């Protein structure tokens, strides 16, 4: 029985779709949906760069750059964010799918469907954060949707604020969803599934915090 990937309809009946995916012998519309999500991610990150989100270092360097150099720097920044958005989406789609396949033995294409839902939720979170960044001026790691706000009152070390800022309500939903999906698709014990999901997310949060901690320095050095 074939299963045709329909991203938005998945959210209307999650358990029914998981059941149908489990029984499916053929998956259709998978790669087209993946490509569209990668394109959407690139556009969202490009739009954020166009709006000036995350480009504080460029504004601070205006006094040291000519008009032409400043515009060129803005263009490179925008292109860099577009590439980052596409790379981020591809990583979310394909890397965890390979890891979970090794752990659970679930077919790779079915795991990509799971990650498509995860990516769609993360992109929705990013879209919600854009007006927060523009109108309230809050960085992603102190978004009201994350635990970074609480961490900023507890820790003085920026890395810990970035780490807890990467943990959001949307991220917690994706953890729950991945558990429901993997538990329904495999015969692994619940404890084993929980452990691997949480470990993988912990690794993601550590990488996000580390990259964010060094990001401003690396980018500013690039444009010096």
How would you describe this protein?
With 224 residues, the chain is mainly α. The chain has ten helices and two strands; from the N terminus they run βααβαααααααα. The protein has helices at residues 7-10, 14-23, 30-50, 56-60, 67-104, 108-136, 148-154, 158-165, 169-185, 190-222, and strands at residues 2-4, 26-28. The longest helix has 38 residues, at 67-104. The protein is globular and about 60 Å long.
Offer a quick outline of the entry:
The chain is mostly helical. The protein contains ten helices and two strands.
> Roughly how many Å is the radius of gyration?
19 Å
Can you give the helix content as a percent range?
over 70%
Spatial strand arrangement across the major sheet? 1-2
Class by SSE composition: mainly alpha
Q: Please give the alpha-carbon distance between the first and last residues.
A: 57 Å
Mean of residue pLDDT values? 88
The fraction of residues in strands falls at: under 5%
| Secondary-structure element string | EHHEHHHHHHHH
DSSP E strands, number:
2
How would you sum up the global shape? globular
Main sheet attributes: strand count, strand direction, barrel closure: 2 strands, parallel
Spans of at least 5 consecutive residues whose pLDDT stays below 50 are 217-224
Number of helices: 10
């Amino acid at each position: 029985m074939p299963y045709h990937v329909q991203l938005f309809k998945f959210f209307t009946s999650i358990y029914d779709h998981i059941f149908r995916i489990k029984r499916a012998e053929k998956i259709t519309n998978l790669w087209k949906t993946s490509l569209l999500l990668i394109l959407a991610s690139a556009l969202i990150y490009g739009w954020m760069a166009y709006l000036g989100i995350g480009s504080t270092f460029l504004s601070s360097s205006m006094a040291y750059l000519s008009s032409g150099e400043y515009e060129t720097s803005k263009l490179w920044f925008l292109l860099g964010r577009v590439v980052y958005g596409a790379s981020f989406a591809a990583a979310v789609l394909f890397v965890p799918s390979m890891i979970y396949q090794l752990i659970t033995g679930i077919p790779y294409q079915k795991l990509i469907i799971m990650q498509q839902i995860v990516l769609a939720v993360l992109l929705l979170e990013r879209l919600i954060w854009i007006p927060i960044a523009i109108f309230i001026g809050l960085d992603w790691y102190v978004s009201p949707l994350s635990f970074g706000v609480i961490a900023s009152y507890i820790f003085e070390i920026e890395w810990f604020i970035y780490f807890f800022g990467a943990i959001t309500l949307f991220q917690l939903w994706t953890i729950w969803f991945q558990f429901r999906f993997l538990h329904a698709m495999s015969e692994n014990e619940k404890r084993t599934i929980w452990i691997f999901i949480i470990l993988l997310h912990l690794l993601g949060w550590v990488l996000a915090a580390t990259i964010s901690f060094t990001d401003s320095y690396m980018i500013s050095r690039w444009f010096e």
